[in-house]
## 1
Amino acid sequence: MSAATPAWGRAQLDAWDRQQAAYINRREDRFAVMLDVLAEVAPADAVIVDLACGPGSISDRALRRFPGMTCLAVDYDPVLLALGRLALAEHGERVSFRQADLWDPRWTEVLAGERPHAVLSSTALHWLPADVLTRVYRDVGEVLRPGGLLLNADHLRQPGGRPLFEELGRRDDAATQARDHAAGAQSWDEWFATIAGHPQLAPLAAERARRFAGRPANPDLSLAFHVAALRAARFREAGPVWQHLDDYVVLAQR
Ligand SMILES: C[S@@+](CC[C@H](N)C(=O)[O-])C[C@H]1O[C@@H](n2cnc3c(N)ncnc32)[C@H](O)[C@@H]1O
């Protein structure tokens, strides 16, 4: 097996992107919309937080598109943090991967006093229970600069009593997985087995299992819940800027 070099990390990040895209039909469109909003509103030298970053898909795209920006990439998974550090090594000091658990109210300490211009997140905040998500939005509101942005791309629960909308979402998910897996994308389990099987990352997989043991299932919160929580966290505007079935990009301005 090849050494865990930056080139190996980059190949695994590419495989991660293909693997994630099999679960999210318009994943690249979501990223593009988030970065289009940044292009309009954030300064060219903005500091961005990539919240629950995984191996750094948002950071990588933001750093390529905006040569003056820097990213603080925050996650609690030691395997994905290690992979992100390898895969994004080419960006040098423009990206810094930091370890924090969003369940811990002190998670903002890893920002070391930095006041970001924007906090971006994708396919991650749905794991947080309502009370933790509400507090994380408050925390983000406190660390952002005035006028700063939160952009969250995620699957959100459809409002009740809309079986057709739910069915269309299920069919779209099934068709996307069938298409991408037939084209060679790995499942999550296959992808993770490769990473966790690497001798340099295997020890971190056990620590990852320990950290996430006993965490509750996806609480399946709605767009209305997210918008209300953002408004309660004193964001002056909040709402979707993009939607594909039950997949949204939510924008909020502090
Ligand atoms: C499906 S991945 C998405 C990663 C990346 N944003 C992307 O779109 O490729 C979900 C991420 O949320 C992170 N996560 C889940 N719960 C977390 C928590 N309590 N604190 C920090 N990160 C968390 C996971 O470790 C994982 O990296």
## 2
Amino acid sequence: MPGGPTRSDLAAMQGGGFYNRHSAMQATGIAALLSLWEAACRTVDIGDGPVTIVDYGCSQGRNSMIPMRKAVDVLRSRVGATTPIEIIHTDLPSNDFSSLFEALISDPNSYMAGTSDVFPLAIGKSYFSPLLPPGRVHLGWSTWALQWMSTNAIDAPDHILAGMSKSPAVVAAVAAQQASDWECFLTQRSREMRPGAKLVLGFTARAEADTGWEWLLGELWSAVEEMRRDGLLSEREQEQMTIPIGLRSLEDIKDPFRQSGSFVDLALEHLDLVKVSNPFWPEFEVSGDGLTFARHHANATRAWSGPLIASVAPRSREQTAFVDELFSRFEHRLSKEPRPHEPYMAAVVLSKKDH
Ligand SMILES: C[S@@+](CC[C@H](N)C(=O)[O-])C[C@H]1O[C@@H](n2cnc3c(N)ncnc32)[C@H](O)[C@@H]1O
């Protein structure tokens, strides 16, 4: 008998298009990846037939429009006007795919607008399993997804994010899970990539000394602590409030490639760490409006963490009311002392050996 959903199956973003409306920070990181993506689209091996692009962890699609349009434009100049280009968006089964299909029709930046012979498709299945037949994919893209672990390795007693805990047991469990998830993802992708295919990835990661999430998620954890002090959850329930995200270092990302320079026929072509600038800070500097700044961040944080937090909310509370209360306290805390939130993103380019 298959079991019920695990915490990580519930990692999908807040539905009803909420993530689409509140993911400007992720869009800023994506802009920093576009030149690597464009170079991959220019240099990838393509034959005469249809071209296949896969967007792994697409969520509701808005942030995929600009990169996919870029890919279509570059590939059109290489393959001509009529070669079919298929774009396969993948995410967890619990993802809000309706908002993705809606965005393909009505988003002003939709890559479907003004293009022809471009075919969008979608798959609702974890990318830690096979998604496509072997050798099918020319180009793969994935942004802001690979920090999510395939399973909640362990609950953290001292932080809302598993990957920011200082407990040695949690640090070790997260590192082991992230290492095995990384190898699993690479193995699955390598099978479905064609010889000469390329994969461009951006996901939140850590520098030696920090992650860039200290202020924001420190305040979220403090809001959880406040609610525990006010009797809205027990100590045990507070500990269970753990988001299964881990932040890899560049060394962690390089690890599988260290011994022979390649891993499962994939070569690491590019790896660096980008500090993503804060899209709301310039507006705050002009207006000095801390409440609006805090609201942007509370909505943006709820967009990616709200469903997971609802799934671990105390059983004795109504889930939406609990999450509303938490994010209202979080927003209040953020408004008191606004700071630029600038997370790190690993930028990774991989290529499949051309036998
Ligand atoms: C923060 S969103 C990123 C969405 C979009 N790519 C962007 O850059 O804005 C992360 C997405 O990864 C998806 N995700 C997490 N774990 C996944 C898995 N194992 N398989 C497929 N998708 C996954 C989540 O459901 C979510 O939609």
